[in-house]
Amino acid sequence: MRLTWELMKRSFQRHLTYRAAALAGLVTNLFFGLLRAAVIVAYYGARNEMSGVSLQGAITYTGLTQALIAYLTIWSWYPIMDSVASGEISSDLLKPLDYFTFWLSQDIGRALAAVIMRGLPLILVYALAFDITFPATPIQWLALILGLILSLLVSFSWRFVVNLAAFWTPNARGIGRFAYGLTWVLSGFFLPLRFHPDWFVRLAELTPFPAMVNTVVEIYLGVLSGPELVSALLTQLMWAAILILLGQLVLRAGVRRLVIQGG
Amino acid sequence: MRHTLAIYRRLLGIQLRSQLQYRAAFLLEVLTSIIINGLFFISLALVLQRFESLGGWGLGEIAFLYGMVDSAFATMDMIFSGFDPGYFGRHIRLGTFDQLLLRPVNLTLQVLGSSFVMRRLGRLLQGIAIFALALTMLEIRWTLLKVLFLPWVLMGMIAFFGGLFIIGATITFWTIESIEVVNIFTYGGSEMISYPMHIYPGWLRSFFTYIVPAIFLNYYPALYILDRPDPLGLPVWAPLMGPVVGFGMLGLALIFWRIGVRHYQSTGT
Questions:
Q1: Which of A187, A236, A238 shows the shortest CA–CA distance to A74?
Q2: Alpha-carbon distance values, B236 to B57, B68, B196, B228, B232 (Å)
Q3: pLDDT per residue as tens digits for the range A56-110
Q4: Is residue A262 part of a domain?
Q5: What does the pLDDT look like over B165-214, one tens digit per residue?
Q6: How far apart are CA B260 and CA B170, in angstroms?
Q7: What is the ipTM score, two decimals?
């Protein structure tokens, strides 16, 4: 437990030092946020509401999703693949710590640093530039925090499994591009899932992606309440469990196959 | 000149051969790119149907803009792969750029030939498909002039974004790391001009009219080809500015590149 805590703290501190990169990332995220907000406003046109989301809510959605990019790093995260390529993995596997926990604790540290340096500042600028909404009740805030923790767990477990592809093939990046690329649309990042027809939403819900972004968004905007809210959180929990289990199985099969080059 | 071209062909040949070595991986990458980019468009089309229009433009017109940008950007992304700031920055960091300086061949050409990412073919095919869809949905009154103009619009966009890649690469001479802000102009710019520009707030539009004149690349040519009135009231020759802006950007970028090369100091690795 102490080891996990140390790993988390170190990773947090290390990521806090990348200030210039964080600023550049923040500016980029903000620009794309403004662009997406402008497109959303144009979609709404004279309308005030779509699928239970107000225009104000939809603008908030663009900021919130942009703020989630750094927290979840859902589009490019390849450190395990890199460690296979460099041979570093051989010493990582020897560490007296579960391999999944080893990476998870570092990812939590990274994610916390991202919240402080990228997520919160972005929401702050959004709050100054637009009339955005905030969760209204303590229950909603509590659900949001739970949803955020679970979304990180789902996203991390997915990234973990995807990275393990490197145990089998040197071309694992291509697999990564596919596995991460699906997230753009199916997680409800590109456009809110509930703006799509029902069949599309049901299709997306067969994947873990909505549990990464869409659930957090819907909790934040308050379109979910009561039993719907509970079931959304439970779905996230289910995906986290499935992916963690999958990760363990794939890891066990992979370690037996892993060929370490050089190092 | 002929010698230079022959060398470029050779360099490209090496790239193609090496990437086709892993044929299955290559095909999967192309397929991946088609699926991922296709998903974006499907999502956009489905949502657009719910909202009925985007700034008064329907799916056909949006597909027209989108298909044009995607085809042009993917082509650019292949031709100018060597200048992709992320890729080029690695050369600078590792000092491998120095090798190119030692060879008695045109430097720009060597960088161009140093990479040619063929998996972009997927996005290109997808862009062409969306453009074809637009053509079936719209009833464009084609004239000879429009047909002759269209390739220039595409080339203008290729030149424009190619120029931005070169600028992004040149900046790494000083910064060593490739800087993420360049993405605002390349990826942000290309996303921005996939939508009708009149939907953007005034300050953003002014920026992309007078400072980085991306509004002329795709939007104005589209107004002309689709016979749409100009809601922003620019002169009638505004559509012609597209290729001018594109090649102008490429020219400026090449000048900046020259300056950068002259100031280049190796990292010493």
A1: A187
A2: 21, 21, 18, 12, 11
A3: 999 999 999 999 999 999 888 999 999 988 888 888 888 888 999 999 999 999 9
A4: no
A5: 999 999 998 887 767 788 888 998 999 999 999 999 998 899 889 988 99
A6: 6
A7: 0.91
Task: Report pLDDT for A263.
Answer: 45
Q: Give the A-side interface with B, CB within 8 Å.
A: 21, 24-25, 27-28, 31-32, 34-35, 38-39, 41-45, 47, 50-51, 171, 174, 177-178, 181-182, 184-186, 190-191, 195-197, 200
Closest approach of chain B CAs to the CA of A97, in angstroms? Answer: 34
Contacts of B35 in chain A (CB under 8 A): 178, 181-182
Q: What does the alpha-carbon distance between residue A247 and residue B37 come to, in Å, rounded to a whole number?
A: 28
Full DSSP string of A82-103 = HHHHHSTHHHHHHSSS-HHHHH
- CA dist B159 and B245 (Å) reads 9
User: Do A219 and A143 contact (CB within 8 A), yes or no?
Assistant: yes
Cβ count near B121 (within 10 Å)? 17
Length of chain A, in residues: 263
Residue (of A143, A43, A49) closest to B59 by Cα position: A43
Return the number of other C-beta atoms located less than 10 Å from residue B222's C-beta: 22
Contact of B122 with B38, CB cutoff 8 Å: no
Computed over every residue of chain B, the mean pLDDT equals 91
- Between CA A233 and CA A237, with CA A235 as vertex, the angle to 5 degrees is 70
Which residues in chain A have their CB less than 8 angstroms from residue B117's CB? none
**What is the C-alpha to C-alpha distance for residues A75 and A32, in angstroms, rounded to an integer?**
15
Task: Report how far residue A167's alpha carbon sits from residue A155's, in angstroms, rounded to the nearest whole number.
Answer: 20
CA distance A155 to chain B (A): 18
Going by their DSSP bridges, the two strands A53-54 and A49-50 should be labelled as antiparallel
Tokens of B55: 């700034």
Tell whether the torsion through CA atoms of B151, B153, B157 and B162 is positive or negative: positive
Closest CA to A233 of A143, A156, A155, A157: A143
How many Å apart are CA A9 and CA B97, to the nearest integer? 38
Domain count for chain A:
1
Closest CA to B33 of B107, B164, B128: B128
Find how far residue B99's CA is from the centre of its chain: 28
Residues A66, B40: Cα–Cα separation, whole Å: 17
Give Cβ neighbours of residue A58 (< 8 Å, ≥ 6 apart): A40, A43, A44, A50, A192
Question: Residue B212 and residue B215: Cα distance in Å, rounded?
Answer: 8
Contact A7, A106 (CB under 8 A): yes
Nearest to B38 by CA among B122, B156, B149: B122
Question: B244: which 2 tokens?
Answer: 């001018």
Q: What is the pTM for the complete model shown?
A: 0.90
Domain hosting residue A65, numbered range: 2-257
Are B156 and B73 in contact by the 8 Å Cβ rule? The answer is no
Token digits of residue B23 = 């044929």
Please give the span between the terminal C-alpha atoms of chain A, in angstroms, as a whole number.
29
